[in-house]
């Protein structure tokens, strides 16, 4: 355990109401297993009447609210929430079923002026937004851990190193669309928000001790203010194994198979990978089979697959084969921004030298600040500034460029002198 972790843990054990006395939770010893929520497993809220009670209770609570959501990734289509967990002082914990209560906007409105505590907020915010829950202020305990220099920032690791408890994480990848949800899963879900407020308070003190609290608040504000991510352009290009596909007509087959699979998965509400694997899509695209019999001989299209399914995949391949050349996709994705860095030495040696110097300076500063480089400044931002630097190379111009690329004020203040020097030395 690092000195920073020891300080955070000791502070948490002294100051957080949810943690037991120091002699019950050893800072450097074995963590104490957290087996049951302090108030027991709350009942699952699945009706409008029950939801109204939760809204009233949480509106009357005090302090920040801990929020978590469980999805059914790998089982269902999309990333919708299948359980929402909350905890707040004065209200206790709540487990809400978004299938029975698909509109949680009343709860979101009741908590509009409250700070929300989430772990890895960007993972849960999209599915929470879909059901009407959008925070105006938040505290991300995972991001706080990164900024504070913790080497492991998963929720279980953070709770263990900061608060001295061991969370049971055996149900993180289960099918949360299952109904009714088994009691062990509900216990696990309730425990995920049990100590989030305590963790938040301890991390806030640690960030303040390191002089990084204002940096963290800027990051949290940026997450809360960020608009929903736009849909991916040409998502079929992200099919695993796509690098094997070289010819445009084969690429068209990937596109047709991916699109057909997506429609089936959406209609059946199952994960696309359960309909047809990415590897099967690539196999058929490379082979371009002429008929169902040839398709059946390929990996991923064995005898377990029904005739109707085989015919729909063969039809997708046939559509790709019938396309005119003008309808075939172009190789490679349109690249926004600079080319891959590996090609810079040939395309622009001066830019390659700028990038090398900038990366070295950012790496050294990140190590000195005890945080990951990508949290100090995103690699994409560094590449963009080095590929197309501002005309006069001054610190003011570099700061303006970083701000335009979305860097926060604290990042601009920390990184601008380094990048300006790297640009000036490699003009």
From TrEMBL:
<dbReference type="InterPro" id="IPR002121">
    <property type="entry name" value="HRDC_dom"/>
</dbReference>
<dbReference type="InterPro" id="IPR002562">
    <property type="entry name" value="3'-5'_exonuclease_dom"/>
</dbReference>
<dbReference type="InterPro" id="IPR010997">
    <property type="entry name" value="HRDC-like_sf"/>
</dbReference>
<dbReference type="InterPro" id="IPR044876">
    <property type="entry name" value="HRDC_dom_sf"/>
</dbReference>
<dbReference type="InterPro" id="IPR012337">
    <property type="entry name" value="RNaseH-like_sf"/>
</dbReference>
<feature type="region of interest" description="Disordered">
    <location>
        <begin position="1"/>
        <end position="39"/>
    </location>
</feature>
<feature type="region of interest" description="Disordered">
    <location>
        <begin position="323"/>
        <end position="347"/>
    </location>
</feature>
<dbReference type="InterPro" id="IPR041605">
    <property type="entry name" value="Exo_C"/>
</dbReference>
<feature type="region of interest" description="Disordered">
    <location>
        <begin position="226"/>
        <end position="245"/>
    </location>
</feature>
<dbReference type="Pfam" id="PF00570">
    <property type="entry name" value="HRDC"/>
</dbReference>
<dbReference type="InterPro" id="IPR051086">
    <property type="entry name" value="RNase_D-like"/>
</dbReference>
<dbReference type="Pfam" id="PF18305">
    <property type="entry name" value="DNA_pol_A_exoN"/>
</dbReference>
<feature type="domain" description="HRDC">
    <location>
        <begin position="247"/>
        <end position="327"/>
    </location>
</feature>
<dbReference type="Pfam" id="PF01612">
    <property type="entry name" value="DNA_pol_A_exo1"/>
</dbReference>
<protein>
    <submittedName>
        <fullName>HRDC domain-containing protein</fullName>
    </submittedName>
</protein>
<dbReference type="InterPro" id="IPR036397">
    <property type="entry name" value="RNaseH_sf"/>
</dbReference>
């Amino acid at each position: 355990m690092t000195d920073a972790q020891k300080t955070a843990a000791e502070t948490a054990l002294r100051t957080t109401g949810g943690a037991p006395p120091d002699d019950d939770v050893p800072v450097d010893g074995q963590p104490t297993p957290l087996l049951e929520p302090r108030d027991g497993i709350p009942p699952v809220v699945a009706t409008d009447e029950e939801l109204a009670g939760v809204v009233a209770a949480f509106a009357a609570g005090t302090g920040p609210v801990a929020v978590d959501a469980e999805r059914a990734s790998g089982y269902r289509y999309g990333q919708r929430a299948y359980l929402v967990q909350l905890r707040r002082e004065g209200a206790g914990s709540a487990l809400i079923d978004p299938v029975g209560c698909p509109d949680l906007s009343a709860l979101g409105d009741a908590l509009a002026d409250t700070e929300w505590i989430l772990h890895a907020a960007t993972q849960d915010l999209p599915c929470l937004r879909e059901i009407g829950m959008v925070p105006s202020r938040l505290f991300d305990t995972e991001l706080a851990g990164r900024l504070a220099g913790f080497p492991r920032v998963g929720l279980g690791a953070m709770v263990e190193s900061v608060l001295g408890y061991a969370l049971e994480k055996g149900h993180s990848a289960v099918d949360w669309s299952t109904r009714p949800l088994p009691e062990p899963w509900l216990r696990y879900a309730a425990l995920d928000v049990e100590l989030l407020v305590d963790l938040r308070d301890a991390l806030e003190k640690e960030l303040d001790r390191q002089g990084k609290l204002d940096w963290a608040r800027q990051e949290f504000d940026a997450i809360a203010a960020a608009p929903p991510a736009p849909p991916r352009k040409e998502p079929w290009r992200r099919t695993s194994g796509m690098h094997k596909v070289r010819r445009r007509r084969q690429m068209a087959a990937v596109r047709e198979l991916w699109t057909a699979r997506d429609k089936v998965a959406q209609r059946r509400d199952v994960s696309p990978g359960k309909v047809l694997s990415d590897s099967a899509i690539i196999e058929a695209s490379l082979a371009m089979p002429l008929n169902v019999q040839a398709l059946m001989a390929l990996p991923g299209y064995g005898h377990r697959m029904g005739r109707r399914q085989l015919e729909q995949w063969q039809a997708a391949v046939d559509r790709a084969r019938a396309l005119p050349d003008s309808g075939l996709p172009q190789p490679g994705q349109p690249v926004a921004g600079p080319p891959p860095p590996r090609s810079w030495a040939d395309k622009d040696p001066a830019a390659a030298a700028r990038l090398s110097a900038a990366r070295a300076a950012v790496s050294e500063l990140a190590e000195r600040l005890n945080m990951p480089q990508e949290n100090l400044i995103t690699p994409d931002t560094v590449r963009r500034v080095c590929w197309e630097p501002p005309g006069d190379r001054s610190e003011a111009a570099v700061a303006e460029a970083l701000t335009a690329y979305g860097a926060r004020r604290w990042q601009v203040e920390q990184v601008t002198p380094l990048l300006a020097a790297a640009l000036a030395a490699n003009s």
